């Protein structure tokens, strides 16, 4: 991950960029249902990219948002979004 923290009054904003190379070595992941063999192996290489931000508003309240995309030899995960709020007491 590559990012930077910007301090604001009482908290911060931390945007980041995420890049990753992935590789799955396992092969032959299959299951047999009603005499039909289904193979969902994702063996091979993949690349993942994403961007996001973490925000802290007060000592107790913060949030985050992330957007990721993965594409590989045998797999693709289109854009995925994750959003959340953190509260501690």
Automatic annotation (TrEMBL):
Domain of life (superkingdom): Bacteria
Recorded GO CC terms: outer membrane
Pfam families for the chain: Autotransporter
Domain Autotransporter: residue ranges: 1-89
Cross-referenced InterPro entries: Autotransporte_beta, Autotransporte_beta_dom_sf, OM_autotransptr_brl_dom, Pertactin_virulence_factor
Protein name, entry field: Autotransporter outer membrane beta-barrel domain-containing protein
